[in-house]
Amino acid sequence: MRIAIADDETDVVNFLKAIVEEQGHVAAAFNDGAALSQALVRETFDLVIMDWTMPKKDGLATLHWMQESLQERPPVIMMTNRTAKKDISDALNAGADDYITKPEDRTVIAARINALLRRNAGAGAFDTKVVYGKYEFNRIDQTVTVEGDTVSLTAKEFELADLFFRNRDRTLSRNYIMETIWRTTAALATRTLDMHISRVRAKLDLRPENGFRIFTVFGYGYRLETIEVR
Amino acid sequence: MLGNLRFRLLLEWAAIAILGTLVVASASNWRGTASFDNLLFDRLSTLSRPPADQNILIITIDERSLKALGKWPWPRKHHAELLTRLEEAEPRSILLDILLSEPSNEQDDLTLAQAMRGKTPVYLPMNFPTPGGDGNNYDIESPLPLFSKEAEGVGHVNIEFDEDGIVRRTSLCFKPEIEGRSWLHITELVYRLTGNPSPAAKRTNNCEERLLVRYSARRSFAEISYVDALMSEIPRELVKGRDIIIGATAAGMGDNYPGPFADGGLISGAEIMANGLASIRRDDFITQVGKSTGLLLSLLPVWILMLGFLRWQPRTALIVSLSLVGLVISASSLALFGGYWFPPGAALLGMLLVYPLWGWRRLQAMSDFMASELGDLALESEALPLPLSNDRTSDLVGRQSAALATAIDHVRDLRRFVSDSLEHLPDPMFVSDNSGIVTLANHRVGDLLGSDLKGQTRAALLDRLIAPQHRTSVEAYLWARAHGRDEAAEYVRFASPGGSTFVMRSADIRNDAGSKQGEIHYLADISALAQAETDREQALQLLSHDMRAPQSAIISMLPAIPDKDMGHRIERHARRTIQLAQDFVDIARMGESAFEGEDVLLADLVRDVADSLWPLAEERHVKIVIEDCSDSGFVIAEPDSLMRAITNLLDNAIKYSPTPGKIFVKIEHSLFAGSEALDVVIHDQGKGIDPDLLPNIFRRFSARAREGSRIKSSGLGLAYVKAVALRHGGSVEAENPAQGGALFRLTLPKASEVSPNLDA
């Protein structure tokens, strides 16, 4: 896969390049938004990782430009020092597919890159059984088994858990989740989703110790992160 | 206020107009000003007396004659002899003004009758004494038939007295009974010797009308004493062709009357007759204007004045009043010389009444108004209190004038005070009226824009004052304010073309009655403040982004370090640097914006925090045990800050926990300030908090290193937690519970219950 990396700091570029190449991908580096934009017109990339604060054309401007100008747009990971909830939701709502706050562990970055490159997220959706670490999903019974114990879930809870695991390390917007599980975004109390996720989290005991955690992206959505147990 | 005054003045005016009209009408109707009018008439008459008629000779029965001929009545043979002697000189007529109603010596009577029979016409008087005898209204004293049949005519000689007892008029005939016989005056009879009635008699329908006679100067008619005429030779030319009037003039004979001579002198009946006859001949009787005409003429100047009072200045009113008085008198005088008499008294009375009355009432009304206005002014609370004079030495008007002068001085002071205050305001300020014209601007505005701005439109001024990109927001602010919109901001901020930053605040100016008079616009130059804001923002940017970036770079390069343990420690310090900078920025940013909470499932937020801190806890062999007793309780929270607050608490707990250790985190229901709340309780197994530090533990920069603690803190963390708790309307407490360790309790108000449809 070809991955574009845009950041004005050489150290960061090298760091990202190392991670990308370690995963067996090809990296192309750019120092500013304008250079990235020119390359995006001429070449095809499978993923773009870019900094928010860049000379000439910043990340958000580049993102907007991509939305308007590119017919086929590769997924984008915004990677910045900004931590404010509003910045994060702004970037995601402007069309970024994920958002990484610096500094972040290389394993996490790698997981997030791979999550976005897993184009066929739906693959395996029709397998009857799937195993993610301790968790074994049985799609016929709609049950999850954790270390031999069957966890009882409602139909919606199972669908939700299944959706998260299939899209692990990928940031899902609330709208996407609700449309996928409930087929609607209307007339659904926002608290409903929070409470379902809370239950799934509690019932499946999704904690770092168990290899997964649910991360809330306030103002946007959720992400199921895989944790590499040291 | 002023309306009341106007109304009152109008009322007073109407009252005076009515009063004036009534007074003039009464005076005119009932001749209330007769004495004045008569006096004026007499005086004026003196100015132009006609010369005595040279065709009349009066033969006077005077004191000298009485002395020579003895007591009255004389034997009638004297009269006979006189008549005979006169006839020889061929007079035109003889008017014997001696009442011959009683018979005397028969021989004498016959001789007299004989004498009358001559070719000279002789006229005899008749009298109508009232009241008459035997209960009659009057008697008729006519000459004996013996005489009347010899006389050419018998006419009445009634004297017509005016109200003041002065004889000014004569009537050409007399009708004792309304439908009875009319007797001609003896003078008219004399005139009719010509064969025709006099022009005056022809002119009037009513011969009884009392005509004003033009009197010649007293004693100006030719006269001869009776005794001279009887005893001496009468010059023939003195008598020939003349009308002879023989009458008494001696004081004791009761035939003298007060005449219109202004000096109170008497005039004999004979002379009155002479004047009457002369007037008839000359036909120059004075016509007195009729009653209704007189009334109108009297009212006219008064009404002119009254109407004028409504419009004129007091000075004009005085001048016009005096001129009108003079005009009326002169007009009246001129008319008199022209043969018409208009008594001006009523008009003068009216004018002399209304002018001072109006002056007085107006002064009174003004005075009352002024007193009440000054009273009101004194009651109003002002920037400067109104000093009121207590001077009792002068009169009311004097005192009020003094008070008014004081009030005007005071207002002047106030105005200067206001304009000085305005002028010396440290910031630019200007005032615009309702039509958007700048009426007032202090010199600071002038300094900004460099010219006199009064009279310009506000829009033009703002165009010059405000950078184009901010012009619309200022206009929107003014519009929202002018239309009383609730969402109108308290002020508007803009940059000037020169690069300064201003805050403009506008307020309505309203008058006493509450209607809007304009707007006052106050500008504050906040350029320094704006610069400081920018500097602060840059400093915060530096801390939050620019400082973070190299730390992130450090961390990203650590995998390259062969010594993994060393790398790990470097990473911890780098992360801590980021954390410190973040804490500082977050505290500084807190309160910059209004609280904007959203629904947050508290237990999940705590789990998110715990999951984030898992690597640290794992490293320290600390287990975080979460117990959720909240039943999916929601709070209204700003997730960013709340997450960081809980992170700080849990991070502390991990740092101060023994290794291995446990941290108990419990989310539970509680009550806070009487309302439902949710608590996050974090209880560690460390050594607890130093009791000395406990009271101030949430204060910023309070040193809170615990004994034996490996980790030092800037103290920002807990201060931040406290700030967040307060911002969320909650609280945070710390204690050292009996079972050991430190316990932090963060309390947040619970969001209102909404029943979520779980299986929708």
TrEMBL record, chain A:
Domain OmpR/PhoB-type: from-to ranges: 127-226
Transmembrane segments: none
GO biological process per UniProt: regulation of DNA-templated transcription
Keyword Amino-acid biosynthesis: no
InterPro entries in the cross-refs: CheY-like_superfamily, OmpR/PhoB-type_DNA-bd, Sig_transdc_resp-reg_receiver, WalR-like, WH-like_DNA-bd_sf
Origin superkingdom: Bacteria
One GO CC annotation: protein-DNA complex
Protein name (database record): DNA-binding response regulator
Species: Sphingorhabdus pulchriflava
